[in-house]
Write a structure and sequence with these properties.
binds zinc ion; de novo design (two linked rop proteins); 3-stranded antiparallel sheet; 250 residues
């Protein structure tokens, strides 16, 4: 028996399989991340014209073999290709990082409506001309939060007191913060309290208000380092896309 389904999706990644097929990773609104085989997609581009590009927002028609968990991608119709994001080098890099993080964080078959909407918000924002670095910072902060790995930032994890003073030290794996009285160590993982407050603002406000905060270069640098460190620490590897983006931050 064959079950067909239509998923509202974003194309997260594609990888060649054998001579002619593609393995396509989709983030779907309905069931989160799924992986499907697009038969013949590598050889004949016609059937999936523009549909299998990264960031593409598509309606994906899939078939699930009844005896396996494998989906086959039968066809797709393009809703938004986010062409302008693909053609701008900086936007392309930022969006590539976001897709890589989504792929790494999301488990197959687990519904992730918050992450789906976050990715949609991000791509629409870039298309509308939002600043790519600020958007990517907000995306990283909210993704960490949505995946349940954003530590409480308002309290020192050692003495339990409310954070006061100008700087905090943080654990490079968990991201937990310690106040200046409790922090020892080599001082490599330190950020100013304005950076900490910025991350708190980005994760606590509704998405239509997050751009209200003005940030300077130092906050951008410190929050970038914090978010990169904590994502990489939790994932136990540094996502490849960071390599290209670190240059832009400088
Ligand atoms: Zn403390």
């Amino acid at each position: 028996m064959v079950k067909k389904r239509v998923y509202q999706s974003f194309v997260v990644a594609t990888n060649p399989v054998g001579e002619s097929d593609l393995l396509v990773v989709l983030l779907t609104r309905e069931t989160g991340k799924i992986r499907c085989i697009a038969k013949g997609a590598k050889k004949s581009k016609k059937r999936f014209m523009n549909v299998l590009e990264p960031f593409a927002h598509i309606d994906a028609v899939t078939r699930l073999a009844s005896r396996s968990d494998l989906h086959f991608l039968e066809s797709g119709s393009l809703k938004n290709g986010f062409e302008s994001v693909r053609q701008d080098y900086r936007c392309f890099l930022g969006a590539s990082l976001c897709l890589e993080l989504v792929d790494l964080w999301c488990r197959e078959g687990q519904r992730e409506p918050e992450i789906f909407n976050l990715l949609w918000w991000y791509l629409k924002g870039l298309e509308a001309g939002r600043d790519v670095l600020v958007s990517t910072l907000i995306f990283q902060a909210r993704l960490l939060d949505a995946s349940g790995h954003m530590p409480p930032l308002g309290l020192c994890n050692k003495c339990g007191e409310t954070i006061t003073g100008r700087t905090v030290a943080y654990d490079p794996v968990t991201g937990q913060v310690a106040c200046s009285r409790c922090s020892s160590g080599d001082g490599r993982y330190v950020m100013g309290v304005s950076s900490l407050k910025s991350i708190e603002f980005w994760t606590s406000q509704p998405l239509d208000k997050v751009f209200r905060l003005r940030i300077n270069g130092l906050i951008m640098e410190e929050t970038w380092k914090y978010l990169k460190t904590v994502h990489s620490g939790n994932l136990e590897k540094t996502p490849q896309s960071y390599r290209f983006l670190d240059e832009l931050i400088k």
